[in-house]
Amino acid sequence: MAHLDVEKLCMFLARAEHAPDWSHISPAEWEQLVTTAHHESVAPLLYHLLHTADVLECVPPQLGQSLRGSYRATLARNSLLFQELSRILHTVPDMPIVMLKGAALAPTLYGDIGLRPMSDIDLLVSHEHLIPLEHAFAIAGCRRVEMVPGLEDITGQVQLSGPHTPLAIDLHWGLIAGFDDRRSPPVDWFLSMPNRGHCPTTRCTRCNSRPRPTCSTSRRI
After folding, report:
1. What's the N-to-C CA distance of the chain in angstroms?
2. Dist CA 116 CA 101 (whole Å)
3. CA–CA separation, 174 vs 163, rounded Å?
């Protein structure tokens, strides 16, 4: 690996490119690889692939520890986010909710909630359910963030956060923009889809069912 660029790293992480001979990578190249992985927020995934390939002994100890720490920190934070989200959603009446972005991909595509860092949780809901959901989050200390007037209607979302809660929530009632944007697909179609994925601790990604446990969403590494 004479030179590592972001595209090459992405190809390896996506398993679209064969792994290099790890034993021939120099300490300087390892530092470049790990630094790039941290910068691109894929350090947990890199750690998982190296651990699965049983080549962690090839990584300089300090760099290996930083990768392991990134995975464990991501797992701890995401577990806390999902548990808090589950607790809050249990306080509101059953309603269709679709998890988006990292919250949907971590337990399904990645298969381990410690592999996909998340700064917030994105939920797709019907516009009519915004008020009860926002009220439930407000009780938990997660309140609406003031945005530029009119921006919420343009983007089709509200942002919720609070100083004493780990949650940062984006409630979407549109996937592209507001009500007047004809490019946005009908939200009701997504909300009516049967469950086709696994969702840790929170209600299923595409249905009204009650939360499931998280024991199968992380690995002991």
Report:
1. 27
2. 10
3. 27
pTM above 0.85, yes or no: no
Residues forming beta bridges with residue 200, ordered by sequence position: 212
Indicate the SS3 state at residue 158.
strand
Residue extents of the structural domains in the chain:
6-72
Taking the C-alpha atoms of residue 118 and residue 64, their distance in angstroms, rounded to an integer, is 22
Residue 84 falls in which region: left (phi positive, over 0), alpha (psi -120 to 50) or beta: alpha
Q: How far apart are CA 208 and CA 170, in angstroms?
A: 19
Q: What single-letter DSSP state applies at residue 200?
A: B
Q: How far is CA 22 from CA 25, 27, 32, 50, in A?
A: 5, 11, 14, 9
Long-range CB contacts (within 8 A, 24+) of 213-217: 214/79, 214/82, 214/83, 214/113, 217/106, 217/107, 217/111, 217/112, 217/113
Q: Quick: pLDDT tens for 46-85.
A: 999 999 889 899 999 999 999 999 999 999 999 999 999 9
Q: How wide is the angle at C-alpha 83 spanned by C-alphas 110 and 68, nearest 5°? A: 45
Q: Which amino acid is at 192?
A: S
Q: Are 158 and 144 in contact (CB under 8 A)?
A: yes
3-state secondary structure of 144: strand
- CB neighbours of residue 16 within 10 Å: 8
